[in-house]
Amino acid sequence: PALDPEALRRRALDALTTARERTRALTTCVDDRELTAQHSPLMSPLVWDLAHIGNQEEQWLLRNVGGREALRPDIDPIYDAFEHPRSERPTLPLLPPAEAHAYAAEVRGRVLDILERAPLHGSPLTDAAFAFGMIAQHEQQHDETMLITHQLRRGPVALTAPPPPPAPADTALLPAEVLVPGGPFTMGTSTEPWSLDNERPSHLREVAPFFIDTVPVSNGAYLAFVEDGGYEDERWWTPAGWAHVREHGLAAPLFWHREGGAWLRRRFGVTEPVPREEPVLHVCWYEADAYARWAGRRLPTETEWEKAARHDPATGRSRRYPWGDADPGPEHANLGQRYLQPAPVGSYPAGASPLGVRQLVGDVWEWTASDFLPYPGFAPFPYKEYSEVFFGPDHKVLRGGSFAVDRVACRGTFRNWDYPVRRQIFSGFRTARDARPEQV
Ligand code: AVJ
Ligand code: FE
């Protein structure tokens, strides 16, 4: 059922406000020197993200939807992600922290005024209700990016959060894998109001039966691969993956190191023993793929992942989330930086799919076997640089969203992508295998 304009306005206001609270937390917990520093050549200075958030909001909501006069057209080029790679951004004449905060706040004040009055349908952007959702998602995506910067930063602890609850009692009894039946399945969406261009349109896909892990691969399981010499054994790696581990000397997930006989990991400034029960985090596609091969399995394709997450075998229908059509609540999934780590494998029984697959949404982004490609009938919207320029074999698809993603930027249809070498992102995975006909 379509939401009435007042409900849409409330929803947009709520999404924008939630995003700004997170942005503030991420940009006020360190001093100005740290905001302007580059903590890794892979990342922008935090103060660039902050003003870029404001600048995108100015361009799309103030100028496009609101038809208002530009506030700071002079800074557009500085905050255009395509003009300057991240490694160059510290050398740009960036707004200093106080000005960046003031600019983002000024844009937001004017945007809330537009949100109160604007007709939500029939605007220059075709549908202003979409534009508000897109900008809330954009800010939350940068909040995840800024959290990655915080993870890469060295120095005293700046961000804290409570730990997630321990795994539920039934975890040890869960089957290792679940059979997903073959047959047609509706992938993507043509109706989800805030879905982005690459999730559209919905279309039918034929899927062969397959088995998929009930839970994401844990640190404990991954450690068995490490200790079995997985990183030294060419058999498990694709040629490109093998060249990459050799060249960079990879021997364990990013942020892990060995001390005495113990494996430790650093997380937001705290070093602790690697927790066995937590989903493995900070692995690149090559590592995920090699682990799967070592385990006698493979990564799921993107189509398989989405079928596992959305297919309801009782009705044949594809649902919005593994648990149904309800928006994510705290009982369903570990999202929104509520905790600053994934929950133990087996958590969130209320978020399980009808077939019993757990933690598909939240906790860790899950690498899939698939390249990032357009769906049949794809049309860029509202700009080619969101998705279209990234399609092709250079990027692998990740699904499901991590603990760092807000629910506004996370759905059963949501698609993320990155280079197969990337591992500073909050990435993990689960494995799959073909089902033989007699098992179906
Ligand atoms: C969809 C997460 C790959 O961060 O590069 C932010 C999202 N696009 N600003 C990214 C995005 C433009 C994008 N990812
Ligand atoms: Fe951006």
Automatic annotation (TrEMBL):
DinB-like domain: residues covered: 15-146
Catalysed reaction per UniProt? gamma-L-glutamyl-L-cysteine + hercynine + O2 = gamma-L-glutamyl-hercynylcysteine S-oxide + H2O
Q: Which stretches make up the Sulfatase-modifying factor enzyme-like domain? A: 175-433
Superkingdom of this protein's organism: Bacteria
Instruction: Give the protein's cofactors.
Output: Fe(2+)
- Cite the InterPro entries for this sequence: CTDL_fold (IPR016187), DinB-like (IPR024775), DinB/YfiT-like (IPR034660), EgtB (IPR017806), EgtB_Actinobacteria (IPR032890), Sulfatase_Mod_Factor_Kinase (IPR051043), SUMF_dom (IPR005532), SUMF_sf (IPR042095)
EC main group: oxidoreductase
Q: Under which pathway is this protein filed?
A: Amino-acid biosynthesis; ergothioneine biosynthesis
Record-listed Fe cation binding positions? H52, H138, H142
Bias-annotated ranges (Basic and acidic residues)? 305-314
Q: What does this protein do?
A: Catalyzes the oxidative sulfurization of hercynine (N-alpha,N-alpha,N-alpha-trimethyl-L-histidine) into hercynyl-gamma-L-glutamyl-L-cysteine sulfoxide, a step in the biosynthesis pathway of ergothioneine.
Name of the protein in question: Hercynine oxygenase
Organism classification: Bacteria, Bacillati, Actinomycetota, Actinomycetes, Kitasatosporales
